[in-house]
Amino acid sequence: MNRTAATVVLFLLGAAVLKVCLTGRYLRYVKEGLWPFLLASGLLVLVLAATNRHRHPKVAWLLPLPVLAVLLVSPQPLGSYAAGNAGMALARSDEYPPLPDGDPVKVTVLDYASRAVFDEGRSLGARRVVLTGFTATGPDGGSLLVRMILTCCAVDGRPVKVVLDGRVPKEPDTWIEVTGTFRPGSVVDDVNGERIPFLKVESVTPVAAPERPYE
Which residue ranges does the record assign to the DUF1980 domain (predicted)? Predict the structure, then answer.
């Protein structure tokens, strides 16, 4: 690869990274908090392109492949297929403070599931809550509400699952906003044996997939 070709490839790679940063598409790849590092890396690649003075081995021609993937392909967020093949992810807390004021109150799927499983629903009580996520099929054929969480990037995404007790859309990967209350009990995730709590459904509203699909 000669100097001119290498410069063009580096420029395209840096531009592709900046594009996903500035359009918000990076949220389909990595956690929101990694935005500054991703932006800095894109700028650094552009600087390298501008100061490129060396010849590069033939293997460098492989660099356009991820560039084309980023520019031409818009990946979908992890959905029901990924959720069905990964075990329930939960985070235990030392304490569960009272829910914020409001009726109903919006909470994350992770917060609700953690309170329902580890706190046995005591901090939820009879409060009406609103959860947003996508639908999937549960271990017993029931309907799940799912939200994926990331440690770093989409490749390590894991699902937080809640069994929906009520009438909900059966089509997988349907994004919905669910209003309901805590219902005691749980089912066992057949992937990793973790407990999946219930939510007693009061109402369901279809919604568009959020800009930030991961919690």
Answer: 129-214
